[in-house]
Design goal:
It contains six helices and seven strands; from the N terminus they run βαββαβαββαβαα. The chain is α/β, with parallel strands linked by helices and 197 residues long. It has one domain: 3-Layer(aba) Sandwich (Rossmann fold). The strands form two sheets. It has a five-stranded parallel sheet, sandwiched between helices. α1 links the parallel β1 and β2. α1 crosses α5. The protein starts with a strand and ends with a helix. The C terminus is likely disordered.
Length: 197
């Protein structure tokens, strides 16, 4: 069993939702996972208590959450000694045409923080129209028209989700398998199966 920290920054909640799904996949593999919002990090949290770290952030107005950037900068030396992953949530990742822009955001973040995570995931976010004021709703509709060629169906509240949950789960499984390989650990379920085969 490996101890994972999943730390994320979120705007309207989609990155939190994605971080939770990642944590669930890793937990289901038999590892110990702690989920932490970068905007509300407990004072007693020590990154040294974790064997692997996953950091997630979303893009708002062309930038990641400053709390996530500060966390990575403050802990970069420790992060470099551990297996790590970074995931980004953006409207740019909702459509193939936006992938180059999404990659630019990641490159800028890694350059600013001088961090080199082992794995990177890019996921489409969501348009939370139900949480926007009138002007932001109009602005986001215009941005979405330019950024996304095919708009998914809105839910009952009028919100639109672009996240591919299969991609999120595959990313979590890949990161978990990478960490298991790097640390020479395996989840308890795998060990039990090996003993009974």
């Amino acid at each position: 069993m490996t101890t994972f920290l999943v730390l994320y920054g979120t705007g309207e909640g989609q990155t939190s939702k994605i971080a939770t799904r990642i944590a669930d996949v890793i937990d289901n593999r038999g590892h110990d996972v702690r989920l932490v919002d970068a905007g509300d990090v407990p004072a007693a949290l020590s990154i040294d208590d974790f064997e692997a770290v996953i950091v997630g952030a979303s893009i708002h107005a062309g930038a990641h959450q400053s709390s996530v950037r500060e966390f990575v900068v403050d802990h970069r030396e420790v992060l470099e000694r551990k297996p790590t992953a970074f995931f980004q949530v953006s409207l740019s990742s909702a459509d193939e045409s936006g992938e180059p822009k999404a990659a630019e955001y990641v490159e800028a973040f890694l350059e600013e923080t001088d961090w080199n995570p082992d794995r990177i995931g890019l996921f489409g976010g969501a348009l939370r129209y139900s949480k926007y004021g009138f002007l932001k709703r109009l602005m986001m509709k215009q941005i979405a028209k330019r950024a996304v060629s095919e708009m998914p169906k809105a839910d009952a509240a009028g919100d639109i989700e672009f996240t591919d949950w299969n991609e999120v789960e595959a990313f979590a499984a890949d990161v978990s398998a990478f960490v298991e390989g790097r640390l020479g650990s395996s989840p308890p379920e795998s060990a039990d199966r090996d003993e009974t085969v």
